[in-house]
Amino acid sequence: MRIVLLGPPGAGKGTQARRLSERYGLPVIGTGDIFRDHAARGTALGLAAKEYMDRGDYVPDHIAVNMVLERLDQPDTREGFILDGFPRTVAQAQALEGALAAGGRPLSAVLNFKIGDEVAVKRLTGRLVCPNCKRVYNLNFKRPRVEGICDVCGHRLEARSDDDEATIRRRLLVYRKETQPLVLYFWERGLLRDIDAEAPEEVVADRTIEALSDLLDLEA
Ligand code: AP5
Predict the structure, then answer these.
(1) Total structural domains within the chain
(2) Which residue in the list 50, 160, 193, 207 is annotated as catalytic?
(3) 171 labelled catalytic
(4) Catalytic-residue membership of 160
(5) pLDDT at 220
(6) Bridging pattern class, strands 127-129 and 136-138
(7) Which residue, 192, 196, 202, 219, is most buried by CB atoms nearer than 10 A?
(8) Do 189 and 151 lie in a common domain?
């Protein structure tokens, strides 16, 4: 299964990607996570990406594309993968489809998580992330058992540097301009299902599985 998760900031892509990965045993390729990991390690790629991320802008296409295509060459993606946050532009989608077609492994499904802007702002201003095991929490919806501490590994939780309200609104604007066109792009290819993602996490997880089954039947 080769799955793309689309949706604005805060739609729950990362949350649902982790659930799908556990259910189907597929690796998650989260471009935001990869950029943040590089930034934390101080690599040249990470330092370049951080400037864009902290402004709420996208990292240039060629950087994102090269990074993802290299990752897709790794053997753990042979049985499939979950792309979280890639592609985000038509140019990225074309590069991805071209590379996958050349390898004879086209995309299976694109899931489009839909939420309103105010829900996004509420979720993201309340988000806390474990920098060690990457678990995601929320002060409004999913609190850790001990305040500020990861339930799983005991590490101290942090807010993301791009989760202040002004940057979130900028990210939503960039999403609408650059990524919204991909909804039609993938719809026309018969690959896309919309998911109303404003419901609680478990309900969205059920809707995700339903949408996926629907698409995979179509593919078969
Ligand atoms: P990235 O890290 O991918 O950020 P994003 O797309 O803005 O998405 P988020 O991670 O903010 O949200 P999410 O949808 O994953 O929600 P989550 O599950 O965490 O990218 C960051 C930056 O990297 C970009 O701005 C760009 O600069 C750069 N970048 C990345 N990819 C790029 C690319 N391809 N090209 C160029 N640049 C790129 O959930 C959010 C919160 O809500 C959590 O607290 C969670 O617990 C909670 N939550 C989740 N689901 C629910 C629910 N159903 N109900 C209540 N709360 C929920």
Answers:
(1) 2
(2) 160
(3) yes
(4) yes
(5) 38
(6) antiparallel
(7) 192
(8) no
Establish whether residue 186 lines the binding site of ligand 1, counting it when its CB lies within 6 angstroms of any ligand atom: no
Residue 112 bridge partners (DSSP): 6, 194
Q: Are residue 93 and residue 51 in the same domain, yes or no?
A: yes
- For ligand 1, is residue 111 a contact (CB within 6 Å)? no
Burial class (CB in 10 A: 0-12, 13-18, 19+), 217: exposed
Alpha carbon 27 to chain centroid, angstroms: 13
> What number does the ligand 1 atom closest to the CA of 174 have?
25
Q: Are residues 112 and 17 in the same domain?
A: yes
Quote the domain boundaries for residue 138. 127-162
- pTM for the structure as a whole: 0.95
CA distance 116 to 103: 37
Domain identity same for 147 and 46 = no
CB 134 within 8 A of CB 33: yes
Same domain, 43 and 150: no
Q: Please tell me if the CB atom of residue 164 comes closer than 6 angstroms to any atom of ligand 1.
A: no
